[in-house]
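To start, one record:
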Amino acid sequence: MPYAAMGRCSEPGCGELALPKNHGKCGEHTRVAWGGTERPSSTERYGMSGSAQQALHREVLLEQEYICYVCGLPGANEVDHIIPIHLGGARRDKSNLGAIHEDPCHKAKTLRENAERRAARAAAKAARGA
């Protein structure tokens, strides 16, 4: 099978040779597959071990009697940040943690928050471009 010819790296200012299989990038500028998608550990995310986080979540569920703070019905099985961390909500403060149903309450809330984040990023990008 014939091989495609090597070209120059498409990264601005780089003139190194690039293989076609690297999508026009040299070894230095080739993106690592799945790079940066590793989920941070509980210690990195919350400043506490996974077992300490689980204990905190159990405590929140018990204190709130498994009542979902979104719909008000019993049977909540997860703990959620009431004010999202990206909006300044505290990671470990119990006043910012609420019992929530995984489905549909948490899923719907997450979808809504992600849509709001995308809209805010698009507005900020449009403001910079204008």
